[in-house]
Design brief:
homotetramer, about 260 residues, seven-stranded mixed barrel, about 5% helix, globular
C-alpha cells in the first residue's frame, strides 16, 4: 500500500481519512438558480477572480461516492453523504468564458469534508435534506413528473440556514450552476507556527471527467437564506429563484487544476 | 383542527408528534431473506402466535412519508427516515396462511418511532445505511442491473448490529418477508402507577392499502448479525442468507387491524 | 429475568427499550423562569387542570441516568442525554397548592423518550446544548462563580427553537419550576384500530424520591422562543426571563401517581 | 476584522471555520494508560521520530472551548465537543526526554477537527461517550470518590472501536499521557494538482500555556481496542491498562512549535 495520502499518517496508509483520487461520485441533485444584487458579491468573491454577476446557484445533493475498488458501496456509511453547495457566477473579463466560484459549502461526512478542502471547496459540517423522486406513482414518491413538489433545506450548528421548494414541470432543461461551467475554489492552510499570518489561498478547480447525466427536469422554485450569527449567506441580500432543476449525475474527479 | 392525536396534547393539535392516519410511505428497500434454527425463535416469537418456521427477513428501507396534504415533502426532515425491519415467519397451525411477526425494528426519526409503536412495530432508535441504485451507468451508481453490489448496515447505540451485502442478478423476483404476507406486531404500554405489572401486549397488524411496486430485482446476499450487550438478534444463532431483492414500493397505512 | 416491561417484547426482556423503575437521574441543570401573558396558556394547558398563572420555567438538563445495577454508567451512551423541559404554573383553585404542567419537552435519546411518555412528559426528539460549570478558574470553564456566562439552546427538526443565556451572580437561590412544585403530565395513546378516536389523556405526576442537590446558584437570564412551523412555544407570546439558576441535582423515580 | 484565518475565505472572515488562536480549552478527562508490544508501534510511529516504548495512553475528553471573547460559551454548540485521543510514548534517543506521538484521534465537531489538523492532531469524526463525575452522592452521579465506576467509549463509522471502564480509588495520582510530556503530531496536505505525490508531513507540537488542573483521581481500568475494517488501533495488539485517572483541566493553545 502506498504511504498515507492524508492524515492520519500510518505506515499502511489504510486509515488515511482520504485515499488518493480518482474519486467517483453519483447522486441526486436539486438545483436552484437565483439572482441577487451583484454588488453584494464582494462579501465573498475574491477580487482577483473578478466580480460577481448577480447570478448564483444552490445545489442540494445526495451523493454516493467510492474509490477504484468500490468497497464503499458495500458499507455505505463510507459512500453516502448529503451536501449543499453555493456557487456564484463571476465575470472574469473580456473574452473569457463564464465561471463560478464556490464561497460556501456544507456537508455531513468527514471524508467528503477533506476531499473538498483539497479541491478548494471550503466545506463545513451542515445537515442537508432533500426530497427524492422515486419511480412510483404514489403520494409520497414525488416522481419526476409534472406537479411533483420537492423540498430541500440546510442547517448549520442547529439553525436553519437555507430553505427551498421546487415544483416540477414536464419540461427538460439545461445545466445550472457548477454543472454548467468550471467552478473555482480556494485552497489554503494557515501555519500555526506563525499564527499571525493568515492562509494565502491558491485558486483551483476540480479536474472532472466522465460525466453522465439522466437529463434535468425543470421546476419552479422558492429559495430563502436565513440570518445566522456565523454563516454569511444572508449577506447576499434578497435572492430570487430564477430557475430550478432536478436529476441524477455521475462524475469522476482525478485531481485539481490551477484555476 | 381536531384534538391532538398523540402527545403533546395542545389545544390546536398542531405539534402532536403523530397526526392521525392515513400515512403514505414510498421507499427504496433492500430485502434479505434468511434461514435460522427454528427452535431459537422462541427467544422472540410470542407462543400464542405460533412457532417460528426458521425463515426470516431483514428489510433495509429508505423511506419518504407524508400525510394527506403532503407538506412533509416540502420540508423533508419531516418526511425521510431509514429503518431496519426484522420479521420472522410463524406457523400458526393447520390450514392457516403464512404470516410474519416483527420482533425487532430500528429507525432514525421520532415520528416514525411512534407511528411504529401504535401499529405494533417495536421501534428503537438505530442508524441504517443502504446503498441506493441510481439510474446511471457509473462506478458509484450501483444501478439496478446485473453485477451491481449493494451494502446495508444497522447500528444501535454506537455498535454495528447487522451487516449485509447484495450482488444483483438480472432476474426479477417475488415478494419477500413483510412484503409477502401479513405481519403481526405487539402493542402495549405499562402503567407507571402500577410499575410492578408489565405491559400486556395486544397483537395487531397494519391496515395497508394501495400498494405500488417497481418490481423486485433479485440478488445474492450475505448477512451477519453481530453480538450486542443489549440487542438480541444474535440469539437467532447462525443465519444464512437464502434470497435477496431490491426495489421501490409505496403503501398507505390507514390504521391497524386485530391480528 | 421478568417479562419485557416495554416493547420489544422478547422472552428474556433484555432488549426492552425501558426496564422497570426505579430510575436514577443525576444532572447539571440551567433553569430559566419566565413570565408570559397568562391568557395565552390556553393553547397548551388542559382546562380541567386549571388555568395558567403566567409563570413558567425552561429547564435545560444534562442528565446521567441508570437503573438498579448502574450498568449504564459503564457504557454511557446508555446513561447520558440532554433535554429541554418547559413547564407552566397552573392555578388549580382555592386552597390548593401551586403546581406545574409540562406541555412540551424535548430529548435526544430513545430510552428517555419512552420513560417520559410513561410519566406524562410528552417528549419529542430535540437537540439541547448547555454550558457546564467546571471546577476550574479558566476562560473556558464557566465556573459556578460571579460573572460566569452560560448559554443554552434547543433545536427541533433542524431549527433553533429556544435560546437562553445566564450570567451568574454570587448568590444562592431557591428552587425554580418543576424543582419547586409537583408537575403534572398527560399520558395517552390512540388505538389504531379506531383511528378516528383520539387518545384520551390521563393526568399523572412522577413519583420522585431521594432528591439530592448541590444548591442553586442564581443568575440573570435572557430567553427567546423562536417561531417554528410545527412546534408551538411561540404561542406563549413575548416571554420575559424573571429568574435563573444553575446547579446539580439527583432524583429517583419509582413510578407515577395520579395527578 | 482580519482576513479569514481558514476557509471559507470571505471578506469579513466571520465565517472562517477556525479563527486565529489563542484557543482556550477546559474539560473533563478520563485517561487510561496502557502497555503494548513496543515492536507493533512501527505501524503508526514515524521512524524519524524514534521508536515506540510500549507505553501509550487513551484520553477521553469532554471539552468546552472558546476564543478571546468567550462568545462560544453563550451558544455552546460552538463550544462543546467530545474526543478520544490516542498517544504513544516514543524513545527519541540518548539523553532526550520522553515524548509522546499522537497517531490517531477522533472528535465530533468540525471546528475542533480543523484546529486539530493545524496542530498535527490527525482528527477524524468519531463519537465519544464518557461518564462524568457530578458533585453529588447519588447512584447516577459517579462522584469523584472511592468505588465510583466510569465508562468511556469511541465509535467510528457506526462501529465501536474503544471501550474502557475505570473504578476510582481514593488516591490522587500524577499526569498521564499527553498531560505528562510534549506530544508531537504530523501536519501535511497533498497537492491535488499532483495527486500522485503524497503529503510530506511536518512534525509539530501545540504551544500550550496556562494550564490549570483539579488534580487527578486515580482509578483501575479495563481497556479494549476492537477490530475495524478501516481504523488501525487493533494493530497495537493486546493492550493492558496499567493506570488510569480522571479530573478537570484547562489549557490555552496559542499556536504550534516545531517538534
Amino acid at each position: 500500500m502506498p504511504p498515507s495520502f492524508t492524515p492520519p499518517f500510518t505506515s499502511s496508509g489504510r486509515s488515511a481519512l482520504v485515499q488518493a483520487p480518482p474519486w467517483y461520485y453519483a447522486g441526486w441533485l436539486v438545483n436552484v438558480e437565483f439572482a441577487f444584487d451583484a454588488g453584494l458579491g464582494v462579501a465573498m468573491v475574491p477580487p482577483q477572480l473578478g466580480v460577481a454577476t448577480g447570478k448564483g446557484c444552490v445545489h442540494f445533493a445526495d451523493w454516493q461516492s467510492c474509490g477504484n475498488d468500490g468497497q464503499e458501496l458495500l458499507d455505505p456509511v463510507y459512500a453516502q453523504y448529503r451536501e449543499t453547495i453555493v456557487v456564484l457566477e463571476i465575470a472574469p473579463g473580456q473574452g473569457a468564458d463564464a465561471r463560478f466560484y464556490c464561497p460556501l459549502i456544507y456537508v455531513d461526512q468527514d471524508i467528503s469534508l477533506l476531499r473538498g478542502w483539497l479541491q478548494g471547496w471550503p466545506k463545513k459540517i451542515g445537515q442537508t435534506w432533500l426530497t427524492r423522486s422515486l419511480p412510483l406513482v404514489h403520494p409520497a414518491a414525488a416522481p419526476l413528473s409534472k406537479g411533483s413538489r420537492l423540498g430541500a433545506s440546510l442547517s448549520v450548528k442547529e439553525r436553519r440556514l437555507v430553505d427551498a421548494t421546487v415544483t416540477l414541470t414536464d419540461e427538460k432543461t439545461g445545466r445550472l450552476g457548477f454543472l454548467s461551467a468550471p467552478t473555482i475554489g480556494a485552497v489554503g492552510w494557515p501555519d500555526l507556527t506563525q499564527p499571525g499570518i493568515p492562509a494565502a489561498p491558491r485558486y483551483l478547480r476540480a479536474d472532472i471527467v466522465d460525466r453522465v447525466e439522466s437529463g434535468w427536469t425543470q421546476g419552479r422554485a422558492t429559495l430563502r437564506f436565513h440570518e445566522h450569527p456565523v454563516e454569511e449567506l444572508s449577506l447576499l441580500g434578497r435572492v430570487e429563484a430564477t430557475q430550478a432543476s432536478a436529476g441524477w449525475m455521475g462524475i469522476t474527479v482525478r485531481g485539481a487544476l490551477a484555476a
